[in-house]
Amino acid sequence: MLENFPNAQWLFLAKDRSRNHRTVLIIDHYVPSYDKDAGSRSTWLYLQLMVEMGYNVKFVGANFFPHQPYTKELQSMGVEVLVGEKVARNFPTWLQENAKCIDVIYVHRPHVAEQFLSYLRNVNPRPKMIYFGHDLHFMRMEREYLFTGNQKHRDQSEKWKQRELAIFESFDKVYFPSLIEVERVAEIAPAVDVSAIPLYVMERSEVEPYSWQDRVDILFVAGFNHSPNIDAVCWFVKEILPLVVAACPDIKLNVVGSNTPDSVKALAGKHVIVHGYLSDDELAERYRQTRMVAVPLRFGAGVKGKILRPCSMVCHWLPQPSEQRDLLSPTLYSISRKHQQTLRKS
Hints:
Layout: H1 11-14, E1 23-28, H2 38-52, E2 56-61, H3 70-77, E3 80-82, H4 85-98, E4 104-108, H5 110-120, E5 128-132, H6 137-148, H7 151-168, E6 173-176, H8 179-188, E7 194-196, E8 216-221, H9 227-247, E9 253-256, H10 262-265, E10 272-276, H11 280-289, E11 290-295, H12 305-313, E12 316-319, H13 321-327, H14 341-345
Parallel strand pairs: 1-2, 1-4, 2-3, 4-5, 5-6, 6-7, 8-9, 8-11, 9-10, 11-12
Helix pairs in contact: 6-7
């Protein structure tokens, strides 16, 4: 088929030579910092996959800020990243003018969906609208209430449930990474077309054999902008680590993660090393040295990147019982990029 259009026509597609390619607009809270949190890594991997599949991919961060080096890396990958104050001001106009060229709009996270739905509802012609929730916010708050008994968490859960249900009704398709969340949505909103997709999409690769005697210590990895992660490491250090140290006096806990708050930094001591942010390569080396990964979450929702990564690195890990049902979902496991049917159907 011809790639070129008649002169000065269909410029949106012509400038990318994408006449014969599907166009996908991805909207998330910011340019994904794939080495700092699991949600960003998920978004990044799907962007990478879509480019490899030949899609014409556009990305919008809700803050329209060109976070670096991630924006340049996306652009080098072949993703057009819409950033800047002028773009933000004119985004509704841009969206309406180019809607006829966009096949799918793929929106991440509830607060982002709420921010953009007023524009998206008025687009004509209307592209297919897909929502990826990452986790059910109301379920996370519900679990926190069941754990703490704090009425505030119950009230927050109910408010989030109403907000998320309203969001689902505005989309043609809804995805979550956990089958448990898919079942819950289907139960409370049977009219919603909801399915599970993997959190991460990665190539299968050879891994080094696990040798217990050649590894040392315990590793906890998390993005500390997420409050359940702060609760998890503080609880583990206070309640569990002393029992481990009593049996293994030389053991140490390595705490790794971006945006480390003072409450976590204060945990540092003889048996706790708080590293803060490590690059992907540094973290991979830390996994190779680690005997066991701790994932002591007491409440939460979704599928955990902190589980997927050690599984791929052949580390031993022990989840909390409250998380085990989620983690047994088939979507726990990373899939090879050759398995692209779900995206093609979208």
